[in-house]
UniProtKB/TrEMBL annotation:
Organism superkingdom: Eukaryota
Organism ancestry: Eukaryota, Viridiplantae, Streptophyta, Embryophyta, Tracheophyta
Organism: Arachis duranensis (Wild peanut)
Name of the protein this chain belongs to: Probable beta-D-xylosidase 7
GO annotation terms (biological process): arabinan catabolic process; xylan catabolic process
Fibronectin type III-like domain mapped to chain residues: 705-775
GO molecular function: alpha-L-arabinofuranosidase activity; xylan 1,4-beta-xylosidase activity
Length: 782
């Protein structure tokens, strides 16, 4: 199997020299920290004593601050407090799919000038591999700590992951998410957070310092940026209690309760009239009291000012400041608090107790990061150095993520993989993304990558004399197509790969799409080249959100289709390896691909469930009732897999011994159900179902294969999803190999649904477990 070669980046000798120079710089440029034990003026403070509990240390620190000093610390650019030996701190740093320089907490202007850039999250999600997600989070956390140790950071709080649900295919930031499924997004959140913060994959081993701090965003029901004049700053998301309970909130609940994230970010938008950052019920009752969140809460940037200046929710700037702090927010990204907080205190609209509470949360995080325990180089994470950034291990991990995430959507007559012959085949690569800047492959919120390769360079690794034509002017916008030139080139070669799709000019933060077609003249170019080529063409799509490629799907002259998302810094190698058969594709779509007519549905309609009476089709694979271009979980391979249910520990679940059943009228029938809230934890555990699925590879190639287990409720309608993902596992199978995959299902979690009041219920009746096209019945008796 041909893998990534170090010769394509740094030679071993050059890498050794650079590592030595970086290590020298590390020793010469200490990271910023408080409580320098060599300084007699600060080492005697109780807040500098690492043997004391953090709560006691923070109380001592806050008690020493003046009002002005306190207020100065409530914004992301926290200034130093020289008299106490406390350095400045920047709360805003980004690490969505690699450490980035966005926000001001990280600098790439020293001896470390880049960081590993993993595939954009939506493609990594397509691996359905929680272990991979954890490893990526852990690698990012290591590189973040290395940059800090090298003296190139003034913050270690990273505002990632984005765990909003990819509700609407037009959303420009959907690329940042793990897709449309709440269970999958929850698992992604937990895996990434545990990795970044330095916990184990299973969790529960994080003791002492955080490796880095993760922040789950955007809390809550945020998935519209700028669509037809409606922007995120003023949008009031009208969300039912039912949809909140089983779609929008579960990822945040998991992020806090299981991932133990040390930060969350409240979103710009309002939900049912209340701005998220001023919602006491959301930030305090739910996050802190119900879910036991013990970290800090930041606003999104500029969100506090919106309460008064744009949304009209607060009567004055002072009221806006008071509203967010009383709701439970701790730090503002912006300067509104700097400008108006003191006035709010003087006007007695803001109590100092609210300020002290926020400061307690903020300084607790800085202490948990080890920034108040003396020189960080002498602490547990002090051994992490520049050689841990852009390491061979991390770069290979980026390659692995891209290879296992790319999804094969069509392979007519087994056109792929292309043959590797001697002499080699003749190949043309055509399209606006075929030789686009390597940065195009990264997606948004990316830092400077270790490697910069175009897709064309990846193909040239296999076919040195690969021919190329962009096909379009103006990049992915493709306002004008050079069809004659592209056709002439295509007619000369054995095979044609067309690299089309989107880029950040089409989808990104503050840029939602208004259609689901390929931009400009792309489709016209595809049809013309496909018609002229000797053999059916291979179509590669770069995009975060889905596009309607129905015409290519059903065009016999388009023999293969691959979705490559934004595959990261080594995506060029990953794609070429798949097309030439050095890697067997196994990715599966984490989102539904809708037909272009879906744009008739207003993006502002937050309802998940379909409404047949009004023609509303619903959203995501769980509730959408209309036609699909490709469905959630779809993905082909160069091999064939089969499934069987080997064992299921319980096929009948009796809940009659637990709490009193209830009666629910549904049209002409009466249903029995249990409220999950009235079932004890012991009852839920006692009803756990162990499922063993046999999976066999019937092909001649080794393959990494995600096994997806769904549950289908016996009664459709009544708010039930048509099916829902209840478990997934990625397994590696040799040719002909058969393995058993185990799943543990909790009826209270996996067999419940939310009712209209937002309460989880378990309904009596038949259910079906689904894996592939194999079913297994389970009966719930109330």
């Amino acid at each position: 199997m041909t893998l990534y070669s170090d010769s394509m980046a740094l030679s071993p000798l050059l890498f050794t020299i650079i590592s030595f120079l970086l290590l020298f710089q590390l020793q010469a440029t200490p990271p910023p920290f408080a409580c320098d034990f060599s300084d007699p003026s600060t080492r005697s403070y109780p807040f500098c004593n690492p043997k004391l509990p953090i709560a006691q240390r923070v109380r001592d620190l806050v008690s020493r601050l003046t009002l002005d000093e306190k207020l100065s610390q409530l914004v992301n650019k926290a200034p130093p407090i020289p008299r106490l030996g406390i350095p400045r701190y920047q709360w805003w740093s980004e690490a969505l799919h690699g450490v980035a320089g966005i926000g001001g907490g990280i600098f790439f202007n020293g001896t470390i000038t880049s960081a590993t850039s993993f595939p954009q999250v939506i493609l990594t999600a397509a691996t359905f591999d929680s272990h991979l997600w954890y490893r990526i989070g852990h690698a990012i956390g290591i590189e973040a700590r290395a940059i800090y140790n090298a003296g190139q950071a003034i913050g270690m709080t990273f505002w990632a992951p984005n765990i909003n649900i990819f509700r609407d295919p037009r959303w420009g930031r959907g690329q940042e998410t793990a897709g449309e499924d709440p269970l999958m997004t929850s698992n992604y959140a937990v895996s990434y957070v545990r990795g970044l913060q330095g916990d184990s994959f299973q969790g529960g081993t994080l003791r002492g310092h955080l490796q880095a701090s993760a922040c789950c965003k955007h809390f809550t029901a945020y998935d519209l940026d700028n669509w037809k004049g409606v922007n995120r700053f003023v949008f009031d998301a009208r969300v039912s209690l039912q949809d909140l309970a089983d779609t929008y909130q579960p990822p945040f609940k998991s992020c806090i309760e299981e991932g133990h994230a040390s930060g969350i970010m409240c979103a710009y938008n309002r939900v049912n009239g209340v701005p998220n950052c001023a919602d006491y019920n959301l930030l305090t009752n739910i996050a802190r009291k119900q879910w036991d969140f013990d970290g800090y809460i930041t606003s999104d940037c500029g969100a506090v000012s919106l309460l008064h200046d744009e949304q009209g929710y607060a009567k004055s700037p002072e009221d806006a400041v008071s509203d967010v702090l009383r709701a439970g927010m701790d730090v503002e990204c912006g300067s509104y608090l700097t400008e108006h907080a003191k006035s709010a205190v003087l006007k007695k609209k803001l109590a100092t107790s609210e300020i002290d509470r926020a400061l307690h949360n903020l300084f607790s995080i800085r202490m948990r990061l080890g920034l108040f325990d003396g020189d960080p180089i002498k602490l547990p994470f002090g051994f992490i150095g520049p050689n841990n950034v852009c390491s061979k291990e991390h770069r290979y991990l980026a390659l692995e993520a891209a290879r296992n995430g790319i999804v094969l959507l069509k392979n007519q007559h087994s056109l792929l993989p292309l043959p590797k012959t001697n002499p080699p085949i003749s190949l043309a690569v055509i399209g606006p993304n075929a030789n686009a800047s390597p940065l195009t492959l990264l997606g948004n919120y990316a830092g400077p990558p270790c490697n910069q390769l175009t897709l064309l360079q990846g193909f040239q690794h296999y076919v040195k004399d690969t021919l190329y034509h962009p096909g379009c002017d103006g990049g992915a916008k493709c306002p004008f197509a050079h069809i004659d030139q592209a056709v002439q080139l295509a007619s000369k070669v054995d095979y044609v790969v067309m690299v089309m799709g989107l880029d950040q000019s089409q989808e990104k933060e503050e840029r939602d799409r208004v259609h689901l077609d390929l931009p400009g003249k792309q489709l016209e170019l595809i049809n013309a080249v496909a018609k002229a080529s000797k053999k059916p063409v291979i179509l590669v799509l770069l995009c975060g959100g889905p596009v309607d490629i129905s015409s290519a799907k059903y065009n016999n002259k388009v023999g293969g289709i691959l979705w490559a998302g934004y595959p990261g810094e080594l995506g060029a190698i990953a794609l070429a390896q798949i097309i030439f058969g050095d890697h067997n594709p196994g990715g599966r779509l984490p989102i539904t691909w809708y037909p272009k007519d879906y744009i008739k549905v207003p993006m502002t309609d937050m309802r998940m469930r379909a409404d047949p009476s009004s023609g509303y089709p619903g959203r995501t694979y769980r509730f959408y009732t209309g036609p699909k271009v490709y469905e959630f979980g779809f993905g082909l391979s160069y091999t064939k897999y089969s499934y069987e249910f080997v064992s299921v520990t319980h096929d009948k679940l009796h809940f009659s011994h637990s709490s009193t059943h209830f009666m629910l009228q549904n049209s002409s029938e009466t249903l029995r159900y249990k409220l999950v809230s009235e079932l004890s934890e012991e009852a839920c555990k006692s009803m756990a179902v162990s499922v063993t699925v046999g999976v066999q590879n019937h092909g001649s190639m080794v393959g990494k294969h995600p096994v997806l287990l769904f549950l289908k409720h016996g009664r459709q309608g009544n708010g039930n999803p048509m099916k829902q993902l209840v478990g997934f596992e990625s397994v590696l199978l040799d040719a002909g190999e058969k393995v058993h995959v185990g799943f543990e299902l909790s009826p209270c979690e996996h067999m419940s649904r939310a009712n209209e009041e937002g309460s989880l219920v378990i309904e009596e009746g038949s259910h079906l477990l689904l894996v592939g096209d194999v079913e297994y019945p389970i009966h719930v008796i109330v």
